[in-house]
Amino acid sequence: MNPSPILSVEGLTVDFLSDAAPLRAVDNVSFAVAPGETLCILGESGSGKSVSSSTILDILDCPPAEIVAGRIVFEGRDMGTLGPAERRDINGRRIAMIFQDPLAHLNPVYTVGWQICEVFETHGVCRGEEARRRAVELLGHVGIAEPASRMDQYPHEFSGGQRQRIMIAMAIALKPSLLIADEPTTALDVSVQAQILDLLRDLQREFGMALILITHDLEVAASMADRIVVMKAGKIVEQGPAREVFTAPQHDYTRKLMSALPAEPAAGADRRSKSERGETLLVVKGLTKTYELPKSMFGKARSLLAVEDVSFSVSQGETLGIVGESGSGKSTVARMLLRLNEPTAGQAFYRGQDIFALDPSEMLALRRKVQMVFQDPYGSMNPRMDVFTIISEPWLIHKDILPKAQWRARVAELLELVGLQPDCMGRHIHQFSGGQRQRIAIARALASDPELLVCDEAVSALDVSIQAQVIDLLADLRNRLGLSYIFITHDLPIVRHFADRIIVMRNGRIVESAPTESLFGSPKAEYTRMLLAAVPQPKWSR
Amino acid sequence: MSEIIITAAPPAPRFAGLRTTWRYLVRDKFALVAVGFLVLLVLAAIFGPMLIGELATRPGLRQRNLAPFSFAHDWTYFLGADTLGRSIIARLLVGAQNTLGIAFAAVVVATLVGGTLGLIAGYTQRLYGAAILRLADIIMSFPSLLLALIVLYLLGPSVTNLVFVLAFTRIPIYLRTTRAEVMELRQRMFVQAAKSMGAGHLRIVLRHIAPLTIPTLVTIAAIDFAAVILAESALSFLGLGIQPPEFTWGAMVATGRGYLQSAWWISFWPGLLIMLTTLSLNIVASWARTAADPQQRWRLQKLQRSPR
């Protein structure tokens, strides 16, 4: 432990008040950061990691929150004894923060240059030409090309990664001694994430800042942290040097987390299908989707090629992984297969029938056989319906599946199948956790006895340890029910032990298509190699 | 992982919610008074005419332009009497029934028609969706009071026509809000999920979309109720609203107009009631918005601190 920490948090306890008993969000949390050190606060959603860091900057709304106990000491001063003006002066100048969603935290009606200059002006450092000169310098520093001309552009004219760079530029403008980064890369693609993490690392070395990195991503934590604090349900369950926590975790929860690391060759590593490949279920040929963009005043009509000439096939009992970054067209493919979007060209044969040429009654029959599990378990189910109504809806639509008298028994059966208790069918969806909701969504998808399940980022919104459980469930269901999957994700490691074959997509095109083993063992395409390399490596092994 | 976590989940919002709603109401004293006033008003509007109805139309020569706050006569003359010597208290009670009844009918009609058209306009991408919207734009861009004047002049003033005109001019508000809400809901994942299950348009609209627009519509209706009362009062004041012997508060203000210098109370009391009613409705609507918003709800809760 460093003897002189720049920031120490001692016994911090925060409650959220309401009519019921107060909800303890942070419970007796203590940690410290030394200058130049990176501390990672690792935890799943709701573990209190963001609340702890908001308290340091005093940006938590009180009430409804209440700081019950604890002391925050920054550079030898107790933050609790400072007045609001002193506190504001520390924020931004000595402690800076970057957030998860840079689009939401940059003001859309001001140019980025104006917003960076504002930092200098609020703290009375400099103004006018001098502020502008320093802002340009900063933008160049964080890797924005042609900073002088891009100064006068608005946030929406930048990409996600560039916006995060701008946020970082604002944060380091006054050379703070502590930078708090709250999930800085969660909204970004893997390859962009690697660049941002590199930038943070370089800046930290250059300025000697202390960095508190809040994340739920084990790989990000491993690649950045000197020390790690693991939080669960508001409490610190384990803290120590990164290497020790990762290689020899003490607490049960930490051990469970570490086993969810997809790179670890854990015991349940092989989730691929064991059965022989059956007959071909789905053949997709030359699938193409173009979007017509509105005409600009003088230019001619432009069109955007979302998906171009995509062909693949899926056999019975097989899992096909489709991997790509945002904008690669992978979700559009799924939506076209379910006829949620109409393709511009191409054919898709399901058991020999062209999906895009079906009449309405044939389409209705197909909708029984092909089901979709959506990304967001919070949004994909109607919040006003209870679990029974949600799961039984397919039977209401397809009247011949099951007589009404058997619905209750079958819902109970399906709930048990996905590992939930049957007596929860009367509850509403907001009473379940994310992982449980996704299980309900899977139960609903199974209700019509499908043959092919299309999972569009089905585990991306879930916490790491829950992701593994849901994938285990899917693998188990496939082996028991003989299902086929099209599993769409942006996360390459996640499909490694699950998919039989993987398609890598970029800009609407298939870059590489290969069996999982050979894709990971000897990737052919340059892009695949880059994706694989973008997976962060632990700091201690570099 | 098969256990169900319910400890952190909020209580079920509907049936157990009645007591919670009452607690939230008690926490906001303004809203409590406003609700109390409105309840009293509704009770008066329902039962008042039965009890002292004939008093409202019985002229009394001895009480002509009787000043308020005098105990010389019956208590029904405490707020004074109008130019024909009719008790103002009795007239306020009977007028409440007409005023609130017309406003209520107009709001219900506008909500139903506007909501339905909004559902269609928001859900469909066909031509008639756009046509509905243009219709709303036309109604909106025409001054509503002027429109009411013209229609009532042509059709002749009657209670039915009044309700029709008031409802017609309010439709765009409900239509536009519902449409905006539906356009957002239509993109929501659970609607896509229902579509991928094979649900038809009717099922999606009625089962998945319509129930979620109701809370918004109810909130707007509460605010709009006040606006309708004012519009109706204005029309009656101009003599195009309800016709004698029927009357509303607005018509009462109109009768007193000529006597403002000598007998201010004839216009004052109905005017005060119009003001109090609209004020109460606005307070209640704003309370309801706070109570329905999970981010703001803590303002109405008794924040229980943990012992230390």
Automatic annotation (TrEMBL), chain A:
This protein's GO CC annotations: plasma membrane
Domain ABC transporter: 7-258, 288-532
Location of the protein in the cell: Cell inner membrane
InterPro entries assigned to the protein according to its UniProt record, in alphabetical order: AAA+_ATPase, ABC_transp_ATP-bind, ABC_transporter-like_ATP-bd, ABC_transporter-like_CS, Oligopep_ABC_C, P-loop_NTPase
Membrane protein topology class: Peripheral membrane protein
A Pfam entry, by short name: oligo_HPY
SMART domains associated with the record: AAA
Taxonomic placement: Bacteria, Pseudomonadati, Pseudomonadota, Alphaproteobacteria, Hyphomicrobiales
Name of the protein this chain belongs to: ABC transporter ATP-binding protein
Keywords: ATP-binding, Nucleotide-binding, Transport
One BP annotation, GO: peptide transport
Family: Belongs to the ABC transporter superfamily.
GO molecular function: ATP binding; ATP hydrolysis activity
Species this protein is from: Devosia psychrophila
ATP-binding among keywords: yes
Superkingdom of source: Bacteria
TrEMBL record, chain B:
Record's bilayer topology term: Multi-pass membrane protein
The protein's name: ABC transporter permease
Coiled-coil region(s): none
Compartments, record wording: Cell membrane
Main localization (coarse): membrane
ABC transmembrane type-1 domain: residues covered: 96-285
Any one cellular-component term (Gene Ontology): plasma membrane
UniProt xrefs under PANTHER family: D,D-DIPEPTIDE TRANSPORT SYSTEM PERMEASE PROTEIN DDPC-RELATED, OLIGOPEPTIDE TRANSPORT SYSTEM PERMEASE PROTEIN APPC
Spans through the membrane: 30-52, 100-123, 217-242, 262-288
Family, similarity comment: Belongs to the binding-protein-dependent transport system permease family.
Source organism of this protein record: Devosia psychrophila
